[in-house]
From TrEMBL:
This is glycerophosphodiester phosphodiesterase. Belongs to the glycerophosphoryl diester phosphodiesterase family. InterPro entries: GP_PDE_dom, PLC-like_Pdiesterase_TIM-brl. It catalyses: a sn-glycero-3-phosphodiester + H2O = an alcohol + sn-glycerol 3-phosphate + H(+). GO terms for cellular component: periplasmic space. CDD domains: GDPD_ScGlpQ1_like. SUPFAM superfamilies: PLC-like phosphodiesterases. One of its GO terms (biological process) is glycerol metabolic process. Keywords: Glycerol metabolism, Hydrolase, Signal. The keyword Signal applies. One of its GO terms (molecular function) is glycerophosphodiester phosphodiesterase activity.
Length: 358
């Protein structure tokens, strides 16, 4: 970046920050969705991460769900678990290592669908990003891989403790692949949620998926709210030839609104340089869809270029830059945001102050 461009960048940033209105009451209602729990502070998808997120004021906790060999839904970001458990160090499971093609990609490792729940429960969770989240590694080995039933039980216990509703925001991972090997994860999830008393659009549940055919099927099975996940690149793995860009045209949004209640959109789809809205939120709202953005993270390495400030890549961005991101989402009228640090997001939104991010 040349000197002139750098000056223009700083001036634009300052203008955005200085003209930000204080958050209105409606904007304060932006949902804080704990991405894999408070995964910036505890190893992701552990009961400890979910409980910390709830204690920090998250409105929803987000478990990614995959099945075991005996069909039990458990929380892991992926069904390949060598990066989030100690399975690679367990000699009794060395022969379970294999290579599979999942959503068109070849993956080598250990997979949840090759372990019974009893076997999986002998493993221990670990931090997935140890170079970035060094502090989280001190918790390696403390917790098991949780089941969906345990997560629901935790939510109910925390509701009783706090007196507030706590939402569930499960993501079905690789539904098409799992169906091909005999696991109907959509039906399993709906059955389990309905049995737990989550049945209507008024219940604090959103079910999400990146796949194109999963939500239309779910729409025939449940009244619970559904969210189509979309990325700035690529398209759904289960519908070749369709891109996420196709799904976000005016016609695409209208089609989504026939079976979904919202979209979960990558931040790059919602905010452009200097945090200005791309207009996608307004277009989605016009189609009758909610908009939830993913993922707001506190570390500089993950922050948008226009809100990184200066410092070490793995260090947290400063208060000014934090405020810039959350204010930009509020000004874009985003209905909710996924974050790895829900306590940070809640504090910024509650603080209701303006800064200059430099």
């Amino acid at each position: 970046m040349g000197a002139g461009a750098g000056v223009r960048w700083l001036l634009a940033l300052a203008a955005v920050c200085l003209t930000m209105p204080a958050l209105a009451q409606e904007e304060r209602a932006m949902l804080i969705i704990a991405h894999r729990g408070a995964s910036g502070e505890r190893p992701e998808h552990t009961l400890a991460a979910y409980e910390r997120a709830i204690d920090q004021g998250a409105d929803y906790i987000e478990p990614d769900l995959v099945p075991t060999k005996d069909g039990v839904l458990v929380a892991r970001h992926e069904n390949e678990i060598s990066g989030t458990t100690d399975v690679a160090e367990r000699p009794e499971f060395a022969d379970r290592r294999s290579t599979k093609v999942i959503d068109g990609e070849q993956v080598t490792g250990w997979f949840t669908e090759d372990f019974t729940l009893a076997e999986l429960r002998t493993l221990r969770a670990r931090e997935r990003l140890p170079q970035v989240r060094v502090a989280n590694t001190r918790f390696d080995g403390l917790w098991q891989v949780p089941t969906l039933a345990e997560i629901i039980a935790l939510v109910r216990a925390k509701e009783a403790e706090t007196g507030r509703r706590i939402g569930l925001y499960p993501e079905l991972k690789h539904s098409h692949y799992f169906a091909s090997i005999g696991h109907d994860t959509a039906a399993t999830l709906v059955g389990q949620l309905h049995a737990a008393g989550y049945r209507s659009a008024d219940d604090p549940v959103f079910i999400q998926s990146f796949e194109a055919d999963t939500l239309p099927r779910l729409n025939q099975m449940t009244e619970l709210r559904l969210v189509q996940l979309v990325s700035a690149q690529g398209g759904p793995a289960d519908r070749l030839g369709v891109t996420y860009a196709d799904m976000l045209t005016a016609q695409g949004l209208a089609d989504l609104a026939r079976y979904a209640d919202g979209i979960g959109a990558e931040l790059a789809l919602l905010l452009q340089d200097y945090g200005e809205s791309t207009g996608l939120t307004d277009r989605a709202h016009a189609a009758g869809l909610l908009v939830h953005g993913w993922t707001v993270r506190q570390e500089r390495v993950f922050a948008p270029l226009w809100a990184r400030g200066s410092g070490e890549e793995t260090a947290p961005i400063n208060a000014a830059c934090s405020n810039l991101i959350w204010e930009a989402l509020a000004r874009a009228r985003v209905d909710g945001a996924f974050t790895d640090q829900p306590g940070w997001g809640r504090a910024v939104l509650n603080e209701n102050r303006n800064y200059i991010c430099l």
